[in-house]
Design a protein that fits this description.
Elements (H helix, E strand, L loop, with lengths): L13 H26 L11 H8 L3 H13 L3 E4 L2 E4 L1 H6 L9 H15 L1 H7 L2 E2 H4 L5 H11 L2 H10 L9 E5 L5 H9 L4 E6 L4 H11 L4 E5 L11 E7 L7 H10 E11 L11 H8 L1 E2 L18 H11 E8 L18 E7 L1
Helix pairs in contact: 2-3, 5-8, 9-10
């Protein structure tokens, strides 16, 4: 092949290399953190310890352990003291498996997502992965979303709902598609007279039960069922509906209105698109489109589904049926985004009282 006669670009490649460096450093730091979690470094560094002694206790290579500790120190997860390395408050709160805010499952879910991205050349030719057939996320996805929510979102949403008129008098709540049950648990914590039903697919029940053991759920029950096909019951004083594929579908929203008792509270938390609005994040759109859900038609952008109402249509529908009590933007309740499917982006939390 003859040599190209194309004139080289005037730029020296610095802009490209800046992106490559960020990608290279990011993935290496991620794997360093995952390795530290797998090795148990953070629970063993509650008190200062020499890296060689730590390596001997955990059966690790001393040289690599010294280098790993130095990198984690640069990441503000360890700090060097006269007697050795010690974990920081940040690591103690979020990277010790004994902490209620432990984020290890979030990292594991992210790593499984990276495995899909490694298959992108194949998926570009063959199409998205069928989540049911290939068991993408291996049941970890709901668990990880719950752990992310514990950073801020679970309690922030519950406080907003608890401030609504009528919440203190509510006695029966339904969390539709509530999976891990943390939203219902947080609401029950703020209202000692409240009982809650969490309705979700049977596959999420083990996640619910694991969180129930960890957090001591009280006055809560898990009801296995399909949100579209099954009966939910009725007479609910509060219905909570969060990040569901059917969250902007008129038929489900009509059923919610019917299932609420007069004056009942409807709490909905979703990402909405205005008519004609395009992508919220091209990166997350691509992440979203790597998989397909059985029986659910995804749209071209993250959290878009066939049959969704646009933001304006949804709000008009909502205001016809509910008195709007509160409307919160994502910055007021959401946990930080991670550039992946599961990010809150510009979601809104709406609280309404049935007219």
């Amino acid at each position: 092949m003859p040599a190209s006669t194309q004139t080289p670009p005037a730029a020296d490649g610095a802009q490209l290399y800046a992106q490559l460096r960020a990608a290279s450093g990011g993935i290496k730091r991620f794997h360093a953190l995952r390795a530290a979690l797998d090795a148990g470094l953070f629970e063993h560094l509650e008190h200062p310890r020499d890296a060689d002694a730590l390596a001997g206790q955990l059966g690790l290579d001393p040289g690599l352990t010294r280098a790993l500790c130095a990198l984690l120190g640069e990441m503000d997860l360890l700090r060097r003291e006269p007697r050795g390395w010690r974990r920081t408050e940040l690591a103690a709160a979020f990277l010790d498996p004994r902490s209620s805010l432990y984020q290890g499952e979030v990292l594991r879910c992210m790593e499984e997502g990276f495995d899909l991205w490694r298959r992108l050349p194949e998926l570009l030719r063959q199409g998205p992965v069928d989540m049911a057939r290939e068991q993408v996320f291996k049941g970890n996805f709901i668990d990880a979303l719950g752990r992310e929510g514990l950073l801020r979102e679970i309690r922030a949403c519950a406080r907003a709902v608890a401030a609504a008129p009528g919440f203190a008098q509510a006695r029966l709540a339904l969390d539709l598609g509530g999976g891990h049950g943390l939203h219902a648990w947080s609401l029950c914590e703020l209202n000692p007279g409240l009982r809650a039903v969490v309705l979700d697919t049977p596959g999420t029940q083990p996640v619910f039960e694991a969180f129930a053991r960890e957090f001591g759920y009280q006055r809560m029950e898990f009801r296995p069922g399909h949100l579209v096909r099954d009966d939910w019951g009725g007479g609910y004083d509060l219905i909570f509906f969060s990040y569901s594929p059917w969250g902007k579908q008129r038929g489900i929203l009509e059923r919610i209105h019917q299932a609420l008792a007069p004056g009942g509270l409807f709490v909905t938390k979703h990402a909405y698109y205005n008519t004609g609005e395009g992508s919220k994040s091209p990166l997350v759109d691509l992440d979203w489109l790597l998989t397909r859900f059985p029986g659910i038609d995804k749209g071209p952008n993250v959290y878009r589904f066939a049959g969704d109402m646009a933001r304006e249509e949804f709000l008009a529908f909502f205001l016809e049926r509910y008195e709007l009590l509160a409307q919160l933007e994502a910055r007021q309740f959401a946990s930080p985004d991670l550039d992946k499917f599961g990010d809150r982006l510009d979601s809104q939390l709406l609280i309404g009282r049935k007219r």
